[in-house]
Specification:
With 319 residues, this protein is mainly alpha-helical. The chain contains 14 helices and no strands.
């Protein structure tokens, strides 16, 4: 308490105003804490939520934790989740692309984010109590930094997970395309070919196999094939898969041969891969200039010219 008083004193010159602000903050904190505890106790003691817990008892541990977090935060979800539907859809799509498919993923994500925003500054302020050599203003600044980390950190981690999964899907797409061409040319239908490719890639590329199996499951559930393929493009976010989906949708719309379209797209895809490889090889010489100039050349000159320079220095010293 004394540390908080000193911290407020450094920003507020009037002691009366400072004490009133402190009393108001303390009252608001106790009220919010009591309200949150009452909601948590009510949620845990609710028979409906206990029944829901029994229903999902056989689910995996990760899903049970997600359901428990979402049900406990149910009354305060409107304050934690974004209010605009566009932001919710955008974040849900990001979670889907990162591999989090649970219906409670959005609530769990924002619950973790809210806890980090509130908890990290409190941890910083409490830890500064054991470091009296630091000033109170520094504690306040570090608390603001911790709050900023809690605000932007989960989004950064989520974007990294999305990039890693998109890269894994892109690495498995060439094999999937070749297998899909072979399966369609051998006489299989599109749904059967997609399922066969998913079965073959289950070990080498499990992420892409799961996405293809999801497409086949949607088709069997009654979703139109065009809609199921477009859902695949939206879920993955891979540019090559979007191109393939657009080609298949256009082929089914005009009634042309799927095998011919896939063969042409496969040849064009190989050309694009070769062009990207040539582009990366052409950029390599430019990228190597900086490590060569700043790392390799100084060492080379030291090894090659260093002994001669030392002899010249010794000869001039002997004169």
């Amino acid at each position: 308490m004394e540390g908080i008083l000193d911290l407020l004193t450094s920003y507020l010159n009037d002691d009366i105003v400072m004490r009133r602000v402190l009393v108001g903050l303390s009252a608001a904190t106790i009220f919010i804490l009591g309200l949150g505890l009452s909601m948590l106790i009510r949620n845990f003691s609710s028979p409906v939520r206990r029944r829901l817990g029994l229903v999902v008892e056989e689910e995996p541990v990760k899903n049970r934790i997600a359901v428990q977090v979402s049900t406990v935060l149910g009354p305060v979800a409107s304050y934690v989740l974004p209010q605009k539907e566009v932001e919710r859809q955008k974040m849900t799509l990001q979670l889907f692309r990162a591999g989090f498919r649970s219906p409670q993923a959005l609530q769990v994500f924002y619950a973790i984010k809210s806890l980090m925003i509130v908890g990290l500054p409190l941890i910083v302020l409490l830890s500064f109590r054991f470091m009296p050599m630091l000033e109170n203003k520094s504690a306040f600044n570090f608390a603001l930094i911790a709050a900023g980390f809690g605000l932007f950190g989960p989004n950064i981690v989520l974007s990294k997970l999305v990039d890693r999964r998109v890269k894994a899907l892109s690495n498995g797409f060439p094999d999937a395309l070749d297998l899909l061409v072979v399966c369609v040319e051998s006489g299989l239908g599109l749904a059967a070919a997609i399922q066969r490719v998913a079965d073959e890639l289950d070990v080498s590329h499990p992420e892409l196999a799961f996405e293809l199996s999801t497409v086949n499951a949607e088709i069997r559930a009654g979703v139109p094939r065009e809609r199921a393929l477009r859902n695949l493009a939206d879920r993955t976010g891979v540019r090559d898969i979007k191109g393939l989906v657009g080609l298949l949708v256009q082929t089914m719309k005009f009634g042309t041969s799927i095998s011919d379209a896939l063969r042409v797209y496969s040849e064009e895809f190989r050309d694009k891969r070769m062009q990207r490889a040539e582009e990366a090889a052409a950029k390599m010489a430019t990228k190597l200039i900086f490590p060569l100039v700043f790392c390799m050349f100084p060492i080379f000159f030291i090894v090659a010219i260093g002994p001669a320079v030392l002899r010249i220095i010794e000869w001039m010293a002997s004169r």
